[in-house]
């Protein structure tokens, strides 16, 4: 009996342009080392391209094909097809909707939500340390923030919260009563629809203090020096006292002679 095989052929179409695509939602950490590259591409040549950033009711042009900037928002020379936007570093205020236009026709739309982490409090005096993770915006799908204490590459969940549009704030905080050496590495994770979207790392630093070994050594040395100094002082004082109390030869002889004279006079 011959085996029968069913052959199924799938056709995969790869689209190389960003025209008329659904809104893309990205999350990025705001830090000096964070960056994002937004792609805008078309298969037909155009003469002009622009990138804009919209926040609520305002919109600003970031780069254009005839005036390419070289600051945090930069694009390479426009070749008629590709006009990517590079944002580096990403700041918390970069949250908004980025739109790409070719000849005033929109070819791409990307929403960027930023997150940032910070600390407050702590030493001196062993004060509590407060860790904060903030998301720039919550709209549409709920956003889950989670604080994890890192042990190498493994994260231990400490606290999490689900934020919605009606949530009173966009911050998740963790309070450490006192800072210890196993609480220095933290990470805030952002989830939507059960998927990890971005992380933001925070490294704490213990206050600079003299180590116990060096303190012990310094204390021992100080005690030894003190004992030597005290012994030397007591020795000198003892010698002085001895010489002050010791009678000299003349006094001794006179003391011996005076009683003899008295006895002779009485007789």
From TrEMBL:
Keywords: Membrane, Transmembrane, Transmembrane helix
Transmembrane residue ranges: 223-244
UniProt keyword annotation of Membrane present: yes
InterPro entries referenced in this protein's UniProt entry, alphabetically: Ig-like_dom, Ig-like_dom_sf, Ig-like_fold
Superkingdom field: Eukaryota
Domain Ig-like, chain residue ranges per copy: 22-100, 126-205
Protein name: Ig-like domain-containing protein
């Amino acid at each position: 009996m011959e085996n029968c095989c069913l052959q199924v052929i799938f056709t995969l179409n790869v689209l190389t342009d960003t025209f008329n695509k659904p809104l893309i939602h990205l999350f990025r950490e705001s830090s000096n080392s964070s960056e994002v590259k937004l792609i805008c591409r078309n298969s037909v040549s155009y003469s002009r391209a622009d990138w804009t950033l919209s926040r609520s009711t305002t919109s600003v042009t970031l780069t254009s094909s005839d005036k390419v900037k070289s600051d945090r928002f930069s694009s390479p020379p426009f070749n008629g097809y590709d006009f990517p936007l590079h944002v580096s570093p990403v700041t918390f205020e970069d949250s908004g909707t980025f739109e790409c236009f070719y000849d005033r026709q929109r070819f791409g739309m990307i929403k960027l939500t930023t997150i940032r982490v910070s600390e407050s409090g702590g030493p001196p005096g062993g004060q509590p340390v407060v860790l904060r993770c903030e998301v720039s915006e919550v709209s549409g799908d709920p956003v889950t923030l989670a604080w994890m204490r890192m042990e190498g590459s493994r994260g231990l969940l400490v606290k999490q919260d689900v934020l919605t549009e009606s949530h009173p704030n966009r911050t998740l905080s963790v309070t450490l009563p006192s800072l210890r050496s196993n609480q220095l590495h933290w990470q805030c994770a952002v989830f939507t629809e059960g998927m990890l979207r971005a992380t933001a790392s925070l490294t704490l630093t213990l206050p600079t203090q003299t180590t116990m070994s060096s303190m012990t050594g310094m204390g021992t040395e100080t005690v030894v020096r003190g004992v030597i100094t005290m012994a030397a002082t007591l020795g000198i004082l003892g010698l002085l006292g001895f010489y002050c109390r010791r009678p000299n030869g003349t006094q001794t002889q006179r003391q011996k002679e005076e009683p003899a004279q008295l006895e002779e006079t009485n007789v």
